[in-house]
Specification:
about 90 residues; alpha/beta; Oxidized Rhodanese, domain 1; four-stranded parallel β-sheet; 3 helices; 4 strands; globular
C-alpha cells in the first residue's frame, strides 16, 4: 500500500518481460552488487524485493542490507503478490 516504496524484481530480464508487478524496477540479482549505486535514492525508503520463488530475493535483500539499505522487505516469490501482473 506504500506508494513511495520501490518494488524490486530481481529475476532475469526475460522473466520480468513475461510478467511483473506494476511499477517494478528490474535488476537481476547477479547484477545487483554492480548496480547498487543506481538505488542510492531509495536508501531510506521501503524496498520490496521479489523473484520467482524466494531464493534470489533473499540473496538480494541481504545484499541491500549489507549496503546500508534499512527498510528492505522480502516478498519472496511473485506468486505471493495478490494483484494483477503486467
Amino acid at each position: 500500500n506504500n506508494k513511495n516504496a520501490l518494488i524490486l524484481d530481481v529475476r532475469s530480464i526475460g522473466e520480468f518481460r513475461s510478467g511483473h508487478i506494476p511499477n517494478a524496477k528490474n535488476i537481476p540479482v547477479q547484477e545487483l552488487s554492480s548496480q547498487i549505486n543506481n538505488l542510492d535514492a531509495y536508501k531510506n525508503d521501503d524496498i520490496i524485493v521479489y523473484c520467482a520463488s524466494g531464493g534470489r530475493s533473499s540473496s538480494a535483500a541481504n545484499i541491500l542490507n549489507k549496503n546500508g539499505f534499512s527498510k528492505v522487505y522480502n516478498l519472496g516469490g511473485i506468486g505471493n503478490y495478490k494483484g494483477k501482473l503486467i
